[in-house]
Amino acid sequence: MAHQPRRPRTVVGVDGSDASNRALRWALDHARATGSVVEAVHAWEPPSQFGIPLAVLPRVNPAVAAEQVIATAIDRAAGGEPGVPVERRPVRGEPGPVLVERARTADLLVVGSHGQRGLLGTMVGSVSQYCVDHATCPVVVVKSAA
């Protein structure tokens, strides 16, 4: 039995924002051109219950909600039919570290840029900057339309 060559793999961060939808579209176009498999990753953290009455918190399974974010993003980016293999990965954790870890063996990492600049950007941090600083593969940062 002949050894199958490994297909290139592109990891893309998906969070439902315009910037991440543009990044997903870019990753799908790139995958069509290169024969890559796309891994759509949505990182989620359980909501903090500190200081919030439990009765106020919605009873939503975060993993199910993450799956829905990915499905909606694929539908928006590709009309539901991406034309390339897409692996859906909802992963519990902080977005930057999760994306860097998932891309450790990838050929490319694609993220959207939310464009936070100045003090606010410094205070909240930047997932795209984290990925550029820590990823072991090339990183493409797709800017939002604005």
Can you describe this structure in just a few lines?
With 146 residues, this protein is an alpha/beta fold. The protein has helices at 18-34, 62-78, 95-102, 118-124, 127-134; strands at residues 9-13, 37-44, 86-92, 108-113, 139-143.
SSE arrangement:
Layout lengths: L8 E5 L4 H17 L2 E8 L17 H17 L7 E7 L2 H8 L5 E6 L4 H7 L2 H8 L4 E5 L3
Helix pairs in contact: 1-2, 3-5
Describe this structure in words.
With 146 residues, this protein is α/β, with parallel strands linked by helices. It is built from 5 helices and 5 strands. It has a single domain, classed as Rossmann fold (3-Layer(aba) Sandwich). It has helices at residues 18-34, 62-78, 95-102, 118-124, 127-134, and strands at 9-13, 37-44, 86-92, 108-113, 139-143. A 5-stranded parallel β-sheet has the order 3-2-1-4-5, with helices on both faces. The radius of gyration is 16 Å and the shape is globular.
Strand order of the largest sheet: 3-2-1-4-5
Strand count: 5
How many angstroms does the end-to-end distance come to?
A: 51 Å
CATH topology: Rossmann fold
What profile does the largest beta sheet have?
Answer: 5 strands, parallel
Radius of gyration: 16 Å
Number of helices: 5
